[in-house]
Amino acid sequence: MTDIIMKDYTLGIDIGGTHTAMAVVDTEGNILCRATIKTTDFATFPKFVDGAAKALKKSVKEAGVDFRNVRSIGIGAPCVNVDTGMVEGAVDLPWPSPIPLKDDFSEKFGLPVGVANDANAAALGEMFYGECAHTDDFIMITLGTGVGSAIVTDGNLLQGRKGFAGELGHTFSRRHHDRLCSCGRYGCLETYCSARGVVKTALDFLDTPRHSSLKQIDPAKLTAKDVYMAAEAGDEVALATLRLTGEVLGEACADFAAFSSPETIVLFGGVANAFPYFIDSMKEAFERNLLWIYKDSIRIVKSGLPESDAALLGAAAVGRSAFLRQRKENRQI
Ligand SMILES: [Zn+2]
User: DSSP letters of 261-295?
Assistant: First the structure.
C-alpha cells in the first residue's frame, strides 16, 4: 500500500533557563509560527506544561494548521537523559529534578515526543538545515552562558550513555588554574570561552594601567556584549580579550579534532557574534596545535542559522524522528 501524501507538522520546543521558544514546523523545516514564554513564570513543571500547551495551540491556530495534522513534538532542554526522557540535575531550570519531560508532554498532547539535550538539538538543526547540511562529520560548539557542544560522526549524533556525550566545554583548557567553572572544577574551556569567561578575561586585562572604554562600566555589570561592542569600536583591551578567547578555543579545538576527525567545526551562540574578532587567533592556535594529519583540512565557521532557529529546528527534527519511529513500530504490530 502506498502512503497517502499529506502535510504534517511538528511542534519544536527549546527550553532555556530564562525563556522557552516554541514553533510550528513543517516537514521542509519551515517555521510557520513561533511563540515564547518565560520559563521562570511557572512555579511547577506541570504548570509550565499547561502554559506551553496553551501557547502552542494558539500558534498552531495562527499558522492556519489543523491540529489533527500535528504529528509530533520535539523538545530540546538542558541535562536530558534520552533513555528515560527525564531532565536530571539541570541547575539552570527553576524546578527540582528529575523532571518527567517526555512523559508529561506526551500525556498532555497524546502525541509522540522526542527529546534531546539542547546543544545536541542545535546540532541536529545545523545538520538538517544549516551550514552542515551536507556534512557527515562535524563538531558544533555553543558559546553562550556556558560552553556546550555536540559531535556528529558518520552522520550520527554521538549520544553516549544517557545522551550526555560531548561535554567539551568541561574539558580542561588550563590545568591547575584558578578560574572556577560552573561545574565546580577549575580551568575548564567554559571558564575562558563562555560569555562569563570573556568577561573574566576582560576584567583581568582591565586590572592594569591600560586605557579602555570598558573601565567606564561597573565591573559587576560588564557583559560579553559590552566587550564585543567595544571591540567593534576598536578598543584595545576588548580586542586583546577576544584574541585570547580565540587562542584558547583554537588550542582546545585542535585536541577535539583528534577525537572525531571533523570536516567542519561550527560555532554557535552569543559569543560567536564576536567571530570576526577571534577567528584569526583561533585559526592560528588551531593549526599550530593540530596533529599533522588534520592540518589545513578542517573548516571553522560560524553557524548561519539564527540561534533560536537552530535549536527549534533541531528539536522539531527529534520530534519528527519520534513520529516516524512510532509509525514504523505500529506497522510492524
Ligand atoms: Zn567545568
Answer: --SEEEEESGGGGGHHHHHHHHHHHHHHHS-GGGT
